[in-house]
């Protein structure tokens, strides 16, 4: 399994737009075989940082999702929403793997 951690720098005046972007990507990830663990929006502290976590069974399946989603009309519309509203200033993507429990756990 591979989990993708995305850190977003967002425009705090465009949180509603970012929320809509996030709702749409949750659905997109599920359509392409992934599990979305949610978006995490600013509460207290930094007002311009948000996070997302989603997983795929393997890096190969994730890479296929990237290829397929780039051709998908609904995904392209969601990307256009972010571009048009400028709700995302920048983002960083990290790939994580879960720690397997110790044998016998």
Describe the secondary-structure layout.
Layout: E1 2-10, H1 15-31, E2 35-40, E3 49-56, H2 59-71, H3 73-85, E4 88-96
Antiparallel strand pairs: 1-3, 1-4, 2-3
Describe, in short, the structure shown.
The protein is α+β, with helices and mostly antiparallel strands and 105 residues long. It contains three helices and four strands. A hairpin with an 8-residue loop joins strand 2 and strand 3.
Give a structural overview:
- This protein has a four-stranded antiparallel sheet.
- It is an alpha+beta fold and 105 residues long.
- It has one domain: Alpha-Beta Plaits (2-Layer Sandwich), CATH 3.30.70.100.
- It is 41% helix and 30% strand.
- It contains three helices and four strands.
- The model has no long low-confidence stretch (mean pLDDT 93).
- The chain is globular.
- Pfam families: NIPSNAP (PF07978).
- It comes from Streptomyces finlayi.
- This is NIPSNAP family containing protein.
- Residues 7-100 form the NIPSNAP domain.
- Number of distinct beta strands: 4
Give the amount of beta strand, in percent.
25-35%
CATH architecture: 2-Layer Sandwich
Mean pLDDT equals 93
Principal-axis shape equals globular
Total domain modules? 1
Distance between the termini: 19 Å
How many DSSP helices? Answer: 3
Structural class of the secondary elements? alpha+beta
Q: Show unreliable segments.
A: none
Order of helices and strands: EHEEHHE
**What spatial order of strands do you see in the largest sheet?**
2-3-1-4
- The CATH topology annotation reads as Alpha-Beta Plaits
Strand count, sense and barrel status of the largest sheet are: 4 strands, antiparallel
CATH class reads Alpha Beta
From the alpha carbons, calculate the radius of gyration and give it in angstroms. 15 Å
In which range does the helix fraction lie?
40-55%
